[in-house]
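Sequence decides. Consider this:

===
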Amino acid sequence: MFNNSKLATSVKLACAFGSVMAISASNYALAQEEATTEKDAEEVVEKIQVTGSRISRVDLEATQPISYIDDSYIKDRGMTNAITAVLDLPGVIAGVTPEIGGNTAANGQALGQNTISLYGLGSQRTLTLINGSRFISSNSPVGGGGAPGGQVDVNNIPVALIDRVEVMKVGGAPVYGADAVAGVVNYILKKDYEGAEFSYDYTSFNGIAADNSFRALIGGNFAEDKGNIVVALEYNETENIAARDVPGLANDWGSFTPADGNGVENDDGEVPANQVLLVPDPRAGILSFSGLVTPGSTAITNFGLGAWGDGNFYQFDPAGSGSLVSYDPGVATGNAVWASGGDGLNLLETNTAREGYERYNLSVIANYELAEDLNLEVTVFSNRSDAGNQGYQALQYNSGVFGGSGAALSFNTSNPYLTTDTRTQLEGLLGGEGDFYYHRGWVNLGQREIINESSVNSYRAELTSFFDVGDRTFDWALSYQKGISSVYSQDQGLNIPKFFAALDVGVNPETGQIDCLYNYTDDYEGGFVAENHGLTDSENILGAQGTCSPLNPFGTPTDASLDYIKYNDQGQTRIEQSILAGYLSGEIFDLPAGGVGFATGFERREEYAEFRPDGSAELVGLSDNSTAGGYTTQDVYAEAIIPIISSDMDIPGLHTLSVDTSYRYIDNDRSGEDSIWAVGLNYRPIEEVMVRYNITETVRAPAITELFLPVVESSQFATDPCDARNLESGPNPDVRQANCAAEGLPTDFASIAQNASRRGFTGGNDSLANEEAKSMNVGIIYTPGWAEGLDFSFDYIDIELTNAIVSFTLTDIMNACYDATDYPNRFCDQFEREADGQLPALRHNDSPR
C-alpha cells in the first residue's frame, strides 16, 4: 500500500568541478529557443531562453547550476544512445538501464528502457523534457522498471538529432510543473538543419555479444526557404549477455548477515548491529540446481541440517543421469543460507548482465513561416522497440525454508522415475522404503524468456510569434501535443497446480507406462505430492483428464511435460498524454539596472495509463493486477527577472545583482491544489566571480500506479526486528526487546524471513496527496579571464523531501510495530505470526489511508 510518509528525507550534496570546454556551463546555459529583437536598423541583440525559464534574456546566468553537453561531445565519444550523453555529468545516474552495471529492468514492461535519476532520488523525481516540453512516458503502471511515475524512456530520443542536453541540477518546477524535484534534464534537438549525415557503429563485448547502430540525419529548406524539415532515422541492436558468460560476474562477492552474530568489535569491545559478511562465490546451501536430497524437510547445510546418517549430503546428478552423487556444502559462513563455494545454488549464474533489444526510431521536425513573424513547428516521433530477456532464473524453487508451493517436495522411494541403483541407495540410507525430501531450483524447466514489444508515437504542434506594444516586444507560444505509448509484454510462468499434478505419478494399469495419476484415477484428490501442497481436483486448472503429461523430477523433462506445466503470461500497457500549453513573455518596465523580464503561461495536461493482463496468471491462482486510471492537471504560472544593479552603474563590489522569482498554481483533480515557487539571486562582486543562491518549493504528483494499483499478491524478504540478531538495533533497543518479549518470542528467536521470502499483498491508494520538497542551492563560479572557456564552480545543494509517497515494506511495518512505545499499535495488525513465531503472510492491503 502506498502511503504519504511524514518523515523527512534530506539529501545534501556538495559538487565542486571545473568545466572543461563543452561539459559544463555553470554560468552559461545554451539557448533552448532563440528570438531576435531589433533595437535599430543596424543592431540586433540576440536573446535566448535558459532551461528553467520562459523569459528570453541577453545574459545566460541562472540561479541554479546548469550543465550541458553538446553534439560534438556526443560524436567525439561515439555515444549511441541518449542516456550515455548525460552520465558523464556529476549527479546524473541511470534510473533504469539494460546496460551492464546498471539497474537492470527485469520486468517485461521495462525491457530495453533507459530513464534518468538526478542524485539517486529516483527517476520519478527527475523531469525529462524535449525542447522544453514534457514527453510521453513508457513506464508501465504495472511491471515498470523504475519507481511509479511518468518517467521518459530517453531511448526514444534520436542521438543524431540532439543539439545539446541541458541539466538543471535543482529546481525548475515553477516553470515546468510537478515532478521536477531533483531537477530537469532538457534534450534540445536540432532545428533548421541543412545537409546529411550518416554513421554506423559496431561494438563487440569480448566476443560475447555485439552492438550495431546506424544513424541518418537529413535536412533542408523548402518553399523558398520559408520552411525547413529535418528527418532522423536510427536503428540500434544490442545482444543479450548472461552473467555467467562474463568472467567474474558469476562468482562475484555477496554480502549477508551472519546468523551467529559474530562481527568486528568496536573500540568498546562491542559488535555493532547490522554488520554484514562479505562472501566470495556465494551459494545457497538450502537447495541445488539438480536437487538436494535430505531425510527430513529441513536443509540448512551451513549448520549441518539435512545430512544423512553417514554424515554426508547428497544430490541428484547435475548431468541428469538420475543417480545420487555427493553434495559439497561449501565453506560455512555463519549465515543460515549462504556458503562460500560448493554445490549450493548460485543465483549469480542465473542473472542477466544486459538485456538485448532492437530499436527503430523515426523523428521529424518541420517548421514553416505561415505569415510574417508567425511560425508553425511540428514535431513527430514514431518509435518501435523489441526487447528480450532470456532469463536464466529457475521457474520454480523448492526448499525446506520456504512455505506453500515453495516448500521442499517429498517423494517415496517407490517413485517409478527412480533408477534401480538410486532406489537401492536411498533405501539403504533410509533403512528401507520410505520418504525423502527434495530441495531444488528447477533450471532444467527451461529459460524464463521475457518479451517486450513497445511503440511510442508523439505529435506536437506549436505556433510562435511576437508583437510590439510601444517600444516593447513580447513573445508568445501556443502548443498542443499528444503522445501514446503501447507495450506488449510476455513472460513465462509455471502453472503450479499442473506442476504438482505432473509430479504425482504412477504406472498406468492400462498402458503399463509411467503416467500422471490424474489421467487414470477417478475422483482424483491429489495423490501424495499434490495433497501436501493443497492441490484440488479441478478441470479448469488441470485440464481435461488424460491431458496431463508426467514430469520426471530426477532426470530430463520431455517437451510434452514442459508444454503442460508452463504458460505464457501476456499483458498490454497503454499510456496516453495530451498537453495544451501557452506562454507570453517580455520586458514589462525598466529599472535603472535594466528591463524587468516577465513571463506567464498556462498548461492543461491529461495523463492516462492502463495495464491489461490476459488473465492467464489468474487462471493459475495468481493475482489479476489489471490497472487503469488517470488525472488532469490545470496549471498557471508566472516568473520575473528583476535586475537590481548592472555593470554600467560602476558600484565597487557590486558588479551585477539580479533576482529571479517564479510561481505556479497547480490544480490536480486527484491530488488537489498546490502552489510552488522559487526565489533566486545572482550576485557578481567582480566580473570574474559570481555567487548564486536559489530556494525552491515543489511537489511531485502521485503516479497512476500509486493511485490505482489494485491489491495484488507479492512476496519479499524482511528483517525481523525480533530476531536475536536485531534485538540490539532500532532507535530504542530496550523498547524493541520489551515489545518482542511481550509478543512471546524468546531472546534467541531466529526468523526465517531474512532468508526466505514471505507472501503478502500490496496495492494503490487513491487518497494520496502530493509529495512536497524544498530545495536550496548556493554556489560560487570563478571564470578566469586568462583562460577562455574555463570555469570553476562549487555548488552546495540541499533537497528536503516531506510527505513522501512510499510503499511500506514488511520490514518497515514490523519496525513500526515493535519500536513504538504504544505497542501494540495499528502496524501490528498488518502482519501475523504462526505459533512458532514465524511469518506466514503480510496483509499490506490493510494499511490505513
Residues 495-557 form one domain. The chain has four domains: 10-240+355-390+451-490+572-704, 251-345+397-441, 495-557, 718-754+808-849. The CA atoms of residues 569 and 617 lie 6 Å apart. The longest helix spans residues 420-430.
